[in-house]
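Schema walk-through. Below, the input block comes first and the output block second. Nothing else is stored per chain. Lengths vary across the set, and this one has 259 residues.
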Amino acid sequence: MRALIDRPYPVHGGDQRFDLFCPDSDGPLPLLVFLHGGGWVSGSKEDYRDEALWAARQGFACACVGYRLAPLYPFPTPVADVQRFFRYVQGEAGALGVDPSKVLAVGNSAGGHLALMAGLCPELLDGDGGPAARATATVAICPITDLRDPFETHLPVGHAFLEQFLGVPLAEAGESLGAASPAAYASHAVGPVTLLHGTEDDIVPFDQSVRLAREFERLGRPHHFVALEGEAHSFTLPAWEVVRGGYIDQAERLREAAL
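--- output ---
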């Protein structure tokens, strides 16, 4: 297996870091991009290292991506950093040994939000403008999908995280609530989206995924929604096996697709 550790990728105003794990292969591989959770304020690319190593043993290239964290770097910086990584992959695919047409974004919680933004948001959000290089497909695990009307659609425990992410009190966030919401870009979805969410989630309401799945259904966009009965924000081992099966199934479909 080939490993590239702590490699830089360019972002607005500097660079961020990623790790890449690739099984031995003669041809370009589908790439799984793992995005860590932590409420946009904590966590690191190392959080997904064990999972990435496991997925690499299944025959996929796997990247664990770092991004700048709130409150020091509020929205849109975390989203824009992730978008910049997908643009970097498009330009460096040959050197990395990956297929730029088969890139799957995978994330949990805040990372699920970022994965959805990487798959849905059509514009680069770091001020430079222009189209975003988007994920081919997305798997979002207990994701934040809609920040609009946060006092009605989010639990009080999540309000502080949302305010740190946005950089302002929720009552003053205004248009940023929509700009930061994956659901606001649902009509721009081009690749399949898988949503997995615990029905008893006590941090990110289960309804966040329910509502986005309904919107995809209304729009006729390809999606798959898995309700994990009785699961909270942290999963039991059997539930994680379902999650793992969800992203591997999506990755296998990418591998087999003639794009």
